[in-house]
Design a protein that fits this description.
This protein has 13 helices and no strands. It is an all-alpha fold and 274 residues long. The chain has a single domain (32-38, 50-269), classed as MetI-like fold, CATH 1.10.3720. Helix 1 (6-33) packs antiparallel against helix 13 (239-269), helix 4 (65-96) crosses helix 10 (191-206) and helix 7 packs antiparallel against helix 10 (191-206).
């Protein structure tokens, strides 16, 4: 006997509808990427006679998506590591240490987060050209680290302030230095928050468009979003290969979220229930 209330059934139906609306576009993208040009004429939702995995080979080799993918990984990993490490150190300072002018510094971080990339990308280009860093990985890594640290600092500061203060006080009473308190007391408790921040940084850095577009003109240094832009210009007519490139671009985000989703939800709800 079904004892569910009508309101619960309606809510479940609405959630299923949103889930279908979310998954359907990506499923259609994958389906199109496995078709030939002739299969497209049969209809968007018609299954192909056989899957054309050679579309992915063409996108990976001919479209240089193998190079773009490697470049994205080379950029994403140091951006995440440097941003999380430096942001955690800054967050610890704002959360527990006595700093002169702390409210002013905190306000400067907030202002820095409000400045759009378009406002400083031209001066940044001339600065990096003067430093000789145009068309290098550093031109992609350093600006994104600088853009990420303010948000990571604010996020980690909030996460640390929600930790039990008695643990920190007990470690200080035992003679632990600030670094040891951070390393052995606070960091082990920041797993969900750090996982959430890592996922955010991965998505933002992987999808970053403006900085690679302006600071890199060498095809050997382009990341996937920029490679997808130029790839689209070359293969506009060949829709299956174009959608195969789009799947290659999106798939790492889905995989990373799949592995981090539990920690991601824990990080978002941390502090909501005592």
């Amino acid at each position: 006997m079904n004892t569910r209330k009508p309101a619960d059934q309606l809510m479940r139906a609405v959630l299923w509808l949103f889930a279908i609306l979310t998954v359907a576009p990506f499923a259609l993208l994958v389906l199109t990427s496995l078709k030939s040009r002739e299969d497209l004429l049969a209809g968007a939702f018609v299954l192909p006679a056989r899957p054309h995995f050679e579309n992915y080979v063409s996108a990976w080799v001919d479209g240089l998506f193998g190079t773009y993918f490697l470049n994205s990984v080379i950029v994403v990993v140091p951006v995440i590591v440097l941003s999380v490490v430096l942001g955690t150190l800054c967050g610890f300072a704002f959360a527990f240490l006595k700093l002169p002018g702390k409210p002013l510094l905190f306000g400067m971080l907030l202002v820095g987060m409000m400045v759009p990339t378009e406002a400083f990308i031209i001066p940044l280009y001339y600065e990096f050209r003067w430093l000789g860093l145009i068309n290098t990985y550093w031109a992609l890594i350093l600006p994104q680290v600088g853009m990420s640290i303010p948000f990571v600092t604010l996020f980690m500061t909030s996460a640390m302030r929600q930790l039990p203060k008695d643990l920190v006080d007990a470690a200080v009473a035992d003679g632990a230095s600030p670094f040891r308190v951070l390393r052995y007391v606070i960091v082990p408790l920041l797993g969900p928050a750090a996982s959430t921040m890592t996922l955010f940084l991965f998505i933002w850095t992987w999808n970053e468009f403006m900085i690679p577009l302006i600071l890199v003109q060498d095809d050997a240094r382009r990341t996937l979003p920029i490679g997808m832009l130029f790839f689209q210009g070359k293969y506009t007519i060949d829709i299956p290969i174009l959608t195969a490139g789009a799947v290659i671009t999106l798939l790492p985000i889905i995989i990373v979220y799949f592995f981090f989703q539990r920690k991601f939800i824990q990080g978002l709800t941390a502090g909501a229930v005592k």
